[in-house]
Amino acid sequence: MIRKYKKQSLLLLTLIMFILPFFLNIYWLDVFTFVLFYVVLAQGLNIVVGYTGLLDLGYAAFFAVGAYTTAILMTTFQWSFWSTLPVAFLLAIISGIIIGTPTLRLRSDYLAIVTLGFGEIVRIVVTNLNITGSASGIYGIPRPSIGGYVISTQKDFYYLILIFAILSVLIVYRLGHSRIGRAWIYIREDEDAAEAMGINRIRLKLLSYASGAVIGSFAGSVFAVKMTAIAPLSFSFLQSVMILLAVVLGGLGSISGVVVGAALVIILPELLRGADDWRYLIFGVALVAMMVFRPQGIWPPQYETEDEDPNDETEDLDGSNTKAPEESPSL
Amino acid sequence: MSILTVTNLSLQFGGLKAVNDLSFSVERNSISSIIGPNGAGKTSVFNMITGFYRPTSGGIELDGTSLINKKPSHITTLGMARTFQNLRLFPNLSVLDNVKSGMHCRTKQAVFGALFRTKAQKEEERLIEEVANECIDFVGIRKFRMRAAKNLPYGQQRYLEIARALASKPKIILLDEPAAGLNFAEKQYLIELIRRIRDEYNITVLMIEHDMALIKQISEHITVIDYGEKIAEGTPTEVLNNERVIEAYLGKEEVV
């Protein structure tokens, strides 16, 4: 059903997201703003972990790169918000390549450890440098404006991040359904076979890291102007884990799944507020149960369709094909 | 004229000489085979030719271009495709998406084209799909086109791997034990398929195989290796009557 009316459902969802602020109080508006931040971040990480299959435990580092770039340029150098974005873009690519290069030959657990280390290095560096405001961070980040209109209310920021979220979904969708995206998925499925098919895994892995980094960094830039103050605490290991959780929970490599995952990771703990001290326990148990009973995620990606080819005229040269079992032998 | 030339190729794993001073060449447009007992070093030779192993010494040339120190992806781009002894498909992807991978090295659209869906990008996607469909039809697995590779019957998975290799438009295709695990009917189909690859696409075929009946039927030239060294070469009849070959396979007659 959803597959059939994909375009309509998407339009409807977008429409709902646009009119949603008129029905929410300030508290829930803020929650949904954070859901959208997570949608952007999780889509970025989805390229790296979901498509390319590279486990990254330090993704919050790219979030930090964008946030600090925008914060520093806007406070110390009085740049406008929009002009900080190209710089955040460039720095994200550079940091993506910095993390990518030493990990090219590593797989799974080794890769996870190196990325974890990278995330911690970035956090510790910003905690100790003067230009990043040490442990207290940077505050008094000015409001951005478009053509004279200053983006300042909760609602404004909701719409700002909503636009970024829509763009990130569109970007990840288009990349995923292209020659580049397919190459990423081939690498995830079987790295050696991909290489044998003429796919330069080194170049494509770096491109994957860089693309993921750019999206994460833009989320950071918007985060900086929304919060007006940023501190190293926002870019901790826990942040990386929560973003990863959104991706895994929703379904690795699935755009719709990742959106659902991002919403759950933010909304579920809010709904459980009534349970006071118990809420993270319940949240944790829910996650464990989820992974036990549905390890592929809530909405896993679909690579095969059941529809048989309508003009199915397979020639059986020797008849052996007709004897092949119609159903899969084992699952 | 030979398309692939291997000269004095050696591969050493620590103290073990897997391949020792091996030289042979493959004629253009031929169907050639490498045979030898288990552990003779056949797959090691394939892995060196396709760039997965780095030879300790020796040379490999494809159409006059040296393949030494080149990455596997680069070698594929130069016109060599391979299949694996133990199927290496992209298990969760559809047959169509599997085969599309072959066209990666023949196309060039990057991030910009993907993001803006440019005319050139759409054109290229159409071409990729067209070539993939052609290769799927060629090996005869059209009805499985949209099914995940892992859900295909075993024989069809073997044909799929060949279709995927063909999609990279190679000059030479290396098949590592293509008949392993196939039943009689499927083997007959495979023989026909290999012939058609050569006759219709003019692609040179080099394969490793254990099935002597199959080799005899289809191979025009055979290289026999044992303990990493070449012990014989020639036409099937020459080779299979060669004393050293019989010895390598069946052992020496010992006088007690």
How would you sum up this structure, described in words?
The complex is a heterodimer of chains A (331) and B (256). The C terminus of chain A is likely disordered. Chain A has a domain of 210 residues. With 331 residues, chain A is an all-alpha fold. Chain A has 13 helices and 4 strands. Helices cover 66% and strands 2% of the residues of chain A. With 256 residues, chain B is of the alpha/beta class. Chain B has 2 domains: 166 residues, Rossmann fold (3-Layer(aba) Sandwich); 80 residues, no CATH class. In chain B, 38% of the residues lie in helices and 24% in strands. Chain B is built from 10 helices and 10 strands. Chain B has a 6-stranded mixed sheet, sandwiched between helices. Chain B has a 4-stranded antiparallel sheet with strand order 2-1-4-5, covered by helices on one side. In chain B, a hairpin with a 2-residue loop joins strand 4 and strand 5. Chain B is globular and about 75 Å long. Chain B starts with a strand and ends in a 6-residue tail after the last helix. Chains A and B meet through helix 6, helix 7, helix 8, helix 9 and helix 13 of A and helix 2, helix 4, helix 5, helix 6 and helix 7 of B.
What percentage of the residues of chain B does DSSP assign to strands (E)?
Answer: 15-25%
CATH superfamily of the largest domain in chain B: P-loop containing nucleotide triphosphate hydrolases
Strands in their spatial order, largest beta sheet of chain A: 1-4
Strand order of the largest sheet of chain B: 6-7-8-3-9-10
Distance between the termini of chain A: 25 Å
State the total count of DSSP E strands of chain A.
Answer: 4
Low-confidence blocks of residues of chain A: 308-331
CATH class of the largest domain in chain B: Alpha Beta
Proportion of residues in β-strands of chain A: under 5%
Nearest-integer average pLDDT of chain B: 94
Number of alpha- plus pi-helical segments of chain A: 13
Unreliable stretches of chain B: none
Main beta sheet strand tally, sense and closure of chain B: 6 strands, mixed
CATH architecture field of the largest domain in chain B: 3-Layer(aba) Sandwich
Task: Report the C-alpha radius of gyration of chain A, rounded.
Answer: 22 Å
- Largest interface, C-beta within 8 A: A-B, 49 and 60 residues
Query: How far apart, in Å, are the first and last alpha carbons of chain B?
Result: 48 Å
Write the element-wise H/E pattern of chain B from the N-terminal end onward.
Answer: EEEHEEHEHHHHEHEHEEHH
One letter per element, helices H and strands E, the order of chain A comes to HHHHHEEEHHHHEHHHH
Helix percent of chain B reads 25-40%
